[in-house]
Amino acid sequence: MSLPYAPRFAFYDGKTQSGSSIRSFQTIDPATAEPLANIHTTTPSAIDAAIASAQTAFPAWSATPPIERARILQRAAALFRARNDELAKIETSDTGKPFSETSTVDVVTGADVLEFFANLVGGGGMNGETAQLRSDAWVYTTKNSLGVCAGIGAWNYPIQIALWKSAPCLAAGNCMVYKPSEFTPLHSTVLAEIYTEAGVPPGVFNVVQGGGDVGAYLTQHADIAKVSFTGQVATGKKVAGSAAGGMKYVTMELGGKSACVILPDADIDQAVDGAMLANFFSTGQVCTNGTRVFIPETMKSKFEQRLLSKMKFIRPGDLHATATNFGPLVSKPHYEKVLSYIKHGIETDKATLLYGGPEPPSWLSSHPNTAYKTGFWVQPTIFTNCTDAMKIVTDEIFGPVMSILTYRTIDEVVLRANNTNVGLAAGVFTRDLNLAHRVIARLDAGITWVNTWGESPAEMSVGGWKQSGVGVENGKRGLEAWVRNKSTLVEMGGVVPTVFAKL
């Protein structure tokens, strides 16, 4: 049977490697549960070959002047922008996210990050520092490339996250072996082909395909200098532990259970719009989502009424229609996981179901595309009268499930918002910016917003606290995660200071 997309193989030495596999699996369209392409799992020997290709390319690439690397990466950014809609359609097919989202967010923001780091290194971002210790002694520092790095992608923002990892990696003079998620791998070789077209030399950016076993082999490899991983906390801990055993550099962007705090003076419409954005964008499959929505007791009734009145603006349906803004979940295992949490919220937690539930969305029965009936569609769901101990409140569901909790005082809500072992993101909605700054300062999270949610521009360094991660991505600090620093003290006095002189 002919599939919509060509098969995907490993990519190294500047070309697709069709002999890199002895087995394959299929990636699935979440909207219909039908196969999209055959993905050929990379063998250990082919992973070794990809790493060897990167090692061969590293000396010349790291020695290339930063301004020349910048020009190549700027050309790549321009190619991504020129092919935005083509790439967005691939992301929509692979992830189930509507084209209205992938065409305006996923590729665009990935290209922004690539351009940001190209401009950063081209404008002196790789320069070190100097300090004069005394008249005849100086210290200077240099930023040095790490070597061959591993990038492990996530399935919710495939091409964006691949660019978040590869852009600073390549800009800093490193080479990368990238493994996409096995659930959303279609972008991977297209990304490699665009880098190649832009002038990135063979071996600088490479791709391997497969599941967790391929990722484990790659990240444990002795010739990998750094591992950058995006995914859930439990997996991230294993990856970080393995990397630490080899004294590798790591960046870990893991999960969260973020608090969206509506302060008593907040504009009700802004608060509702923010809470909906923090829960239902990307069908709730965003690590920074504010799924614990804290509302003042006195505002609860009004907030819920306004929230229910706006739920009609969530529009599932044909993923390529411009009006559609809500898609299916990414895979069958994840679909089953999210449904189990919704049922647990009803049956065990005994939370009040305000909207949605575990039943199939009613619109599916009348949709002209009958294949959608077998896809991984769920209803956006809202629970209220929740308590902090409920499983739907404590666990990261990673789906469109909002939990509404009430509070009485600012001190109380800060304490409860921080009562979690993760600290990826948090946000507040208020008219009082002085109050906003005071509350944000007390929230234990690495990414925070005031009167908005979710935006993460290239200029903004982001990273989690607690068990939500290690290190940061993007912004000027993001470049530091891909270099190692060397300090040199130069003595110019003509005499070597020594304690071993003749008395």
From TrEMBL:
Family the UniProt entry places it in: Belongs to the aldehyde dehydrogenase family.
Catalytic activity, as annotated: an aldehyde + NAD(+) + H2O = a carboxylate + NADH + 2 H(+)
Active site: 253
Organism: Decorospora gaudefroyi
One GO molecular-function entry: aldehyde dehydrogenase (NAD+) activity
Record EC number: 1.2.1.3
InterPro entries membership: Ald_DH/histidinol_DH, Ald_DH_C, Ald_DH_CS_CYS, Ald_DH_CS_GLU, Ald_DH_N, Aldehyde_DH_dom
SUPFAM superfamilies, sorted: ALDH-like
Domain Aldehyde dehydrogenase: 20-487
Record-linked Gene3D superfamilies: Aldehyde Dehydrogenase, Chain A, domain 1, Aldehyde Dehydrogenase, Chain A, domain 2
UniProt protein name: aldehyde dehydrogenase (NAD(+))
Pfam family, one: Aldedh
Record keywords, A-Z: Metal-binding, NAD, Oxidoreductase
